[in-house]
Amino acid sequence: MGKCRGGSEPHPYGTTLFMPNDYSPQELMAVFLARDLQDGEVLRVGVAMPPVEAAVRLAHLMHGPNMELIFLGARMNVAHLHSLPMPAFGWDRRVVRWAESYSDTGHRFDRVKDWNNHVFFIGGVQVDPYGNTNLIGVGADYHHLRFRGPGSVGTATLSTHVGRYYIVLNSHTPRIFVERCDYISAYGWGTGGADARRRVGLPGGGPKYCVTPLCVIDFAEETKRMRLHSLHAGVAAADVQAQTGFTLTTSAPVPTTDPPSAEELHVLRTRVDRTGFLRR
Amino acid sequence: MGKCRGGSEPHPYGTTLFMPNDYSPQELMAVFLARDLQDGEVLRVGVAMPPVEAAVRLAHLMHGPNMELIFLGARMNVAHLHSLPMPAFGWDRRVVRWAESYSDTGHRFDRVKDWNNHVFFIGGVQVDPYGNTNLIGVGADYHHLRFRGPGSVGTATLSTHVGRYYIVLNSHTPRIFVERCDYISAYGWGTGGADARRRVGLPGGGPKYCVTPLCVIDFAEETKRMRLHSLHAGVAAADVQAQTGFTLTTSAPVPTTDPPSAEELHVLRTRVDRTGFLRR
Amino acid sequence: MAHEKGSYVNGTERRQRIIDEVEAASWVQDGMTIAVGSPAPMALVRQLIRRGVKDLTVIDSGLSLDLLVAAGCVRQAVSYYAGGGFGVPVAPSFRRAVERGEIVVWECEEGILTTGLQAAAQSLPFLPWRGGVGTSLPEVNPDLKVFSDPLKGETLLAVPPIKPDVTLLHAAAADAYGNVQHLGGPGWIDLFLQRAADRTVVQVERVIANEEVRANPWATTIAAVDAVVRAPYGAHPFYSRGFYVQDNDQLRMYVEAATAAAQENRPEALAYYLAHYCREPVTHGDYLERVGIKRLLSLYEY
Amino acid sequence: MAHEKGSYVNGTERRQRIIDEVEAASWVQDGMTIAVGSPAPMALVRQLIRRGVKDLTVIDSGLSLDLLVAAGCVRQAVSYYAGGGFGVPVAPSFRRAVERGEIVVWECEEGILTTGLQAAAQSLPFLPWRGGVGTSLPEVNPDLKVFSDPLKGETLLAVPPIKPDVTLLHAAAADAYGNVQHLGGPGWIDLFLQRAADRTVVQVERVIANEEVRANPWATTIAAVDAVVRAPYGAHPFYSRGFYVQDNDQLRMYVEAATAAAQENRPEALAYYLAHYCREPVTHGDYLERVGIKRLLSLYEY
Q: Which ipTM did the prediction report?
């Protein structure tokens, strides 16, 4: 398109509601993720991650006519629809009405060899500097956890095989970002190094970005240790470091996360997140 | 029923065509097998075995309303039909019209633990005294076989797990019945002994009978070596021994295989083998 | 079946497999391993709670697992996911019971769980899986053994068979002979749970004619299930694809009650929920009466 | 796909995956491993023969395997069953080629083959299987290794991954985007062959609208296949469930011709069959013209 720059003049979408500098952190997370998803990829969407729910829909509508979305075992391509509304409640099962096939036919994990172009999104109760994640719990003694987590879901298998994945967190705190996870339920870059995954025989591409309400983090090529990639507008590097339980590598000056374009906000708010889920 | 004895008087089926003493060896094989199948069993039917095709249909109609038949991956119970005609050509795919479900949904062998009440029927280019069978080929050097057989089909897996199976042969010759198979594609009773299968860890019940156009053979309890169980009418034990490449245990006098009843022949010829496939 | 020469014990009919929820739940005895499908077959789950079954090992996830824990039925949870929903990241009763050591977790993951279920279904002493290599899972669950594969020497996990005594599922429809047909896909790992189990009960929204099954045999997702229970609205307060969506009001009420009991030592609301919705209704019909037809009809899918 | 800040290379359409049988067959190169489903996708198989592809490792059974052997395309057969039918217990060209040492057999069995295909699909270096323990299979196929399981010490076979470069299948229908729907169940091990393969081509009797797929997503037996080939009567002389039965006259003709060539040193009829039905017709349409519409229409299922 190329002609939608937003700004102060009246733009083609007919309302100033979609000003690029008027967006929520969750909207920015959604747009950042959407831009990074490639046409033709298969997107596996889990639960309780509103920015991800929005991102895959936005990418599919804006530049991914050959993407496939997998929600709740239903596999679909719905690029022909005008709108892909977010569900009322994360996991509304009516999403299966969009299915072209089901992957939960009793052989959900029978084709992991074809997951090179599959992408998924992971959370964690703890995340360490190498992108290892913990959904098991917190506490030194497994039999007496201080906090019992929800469990590993399918993350051990997905993180092993998908071409790449994103760590997506709804909050950014030193309790989540820890120097060492008490338990690892999905192996990211292990103890570091570009060959960290090859050493243990994991074929998938590992975590690419960690996206939070404050910033985007990537992994340094050589060490695979977390590095500040961009700061969301209005956030300082020191703010992020203060909320992170280990030292984040930074290359000053850290760029600002690209804001959503007017077109992106327009599509996001009129065709995906029509009830403002990401702005609450 | 109990009142259908056949014989010389006019019987309830209104024609003397179904005289119990007027039947082919293949019909006798079918009736013998049918009687041995139990209601509630799951019958897995392979290819090119007309007596088996007939036996499972006959048993299902006569005393097996809870049998399930598996033909070509289609699972069915068709006891409610009046007739279950034999196919024109062993494997006519139209048999799937009877299906209630399919077992070839990409997970054919995913429930072998439930095969205790499954029954199957095996052939062989060689059969040894312990019911081991060979579908691979004949010749001491595997790389230069004198006769290349059709291959193992699913017999290694089926013979490992089903509750019991039957060796069914269209002919009875010393070339088939050999002291030692050149190759074993399905393990029956190994080198003999009641614990022959347990020793190698095979959970299934092994071969119960070997049925040929001349006789029925079983396996002695202690040794699991082949033993003459019954002779078809008009066949002498010496005839069988002459056509068998090893010594068959016999307990004189060997009984005669029970002939088909008038009712069995009636059902077989009017509701199963209507074109006389077993009488050619 | 015994038979005499030339004569058969014939004429018996094909056996129907429909039983009621009370009888079906009686298959589950204290100490057994049960699996609960998705959506949870709540008519059956409530019967287990009503009977006060104890010391179960439960293969389940989410709030149905939480309810069984809250009701005191569970000794061990085999779970890859115990989320709460409604802003509560971890199912509250599950979380408290684990943190207090009242129940044990057989720590696993979806790929590992399905691998173990597959091993059981295939009568194999183990199956290998790669997902979990490098993680803490084999440390916190010593039944998962790290080994070198016999052909290439790669590092894998050996997953032992996971074998439910009874699997309880919910589906759209089945005929009287146990041919089950889902709408909108069978739930998550339900087909694995069924294959691995000794016996499976499926509760259904509708019992359909056998002829309807034969008209579309490919739609038969499970053949010859051991028992069928007629349970319209049987997954309530969860959804049933093709019939109704989940009842978020009741689920939120439960999560709040369970959270109050677990985090704030205020057990009254949870006790009321368990008594009113699980223990006092004798049959599934009694439960539905308590929910009310107007509430139920408001949950239509579209 | 590259994109610039705030702007996307957008507006491309969803890619259609329909190609013709000539292009699809060109995916198969000399020396590759291919898998052929059931019923055999004969429009594609005949194209391979026409092109004179050589040195294939072929995962196939029965008479389609025999035809590929007769045409000189095969170096190695991965087969659990090579029956002939029509009173001929073993496929004649296969039998002769093996007995003469012209082709090699990777000896296996249905359970072992599906286990190896599953290992490939799951990126595992092996999977264990019990069927075949005690038999000669691991002796005549040294790739099957007897081993002790790491948990219980039971004796099992370790089956290596079996990975087709290209899998060729026949099905009833697919939409333009590669959503395949069978009628009467997918053939035998077809879903395993597809999952294990690098790429899969499915030839279909009918190309259907995407909306027809969405109306019954459970009927989608394979999603997102790599290419769809429109081939009405494409399984002829074999059957296609829901469309036609197999052409026993032509198959018997083939078996007799192949038997004469293999057993009686009379290769003329087989050479004619290969030339007339496989090598001379340039397209599938040309083949159908040679068979004749009257013959084809006589093969309706009922």
A: 0.94
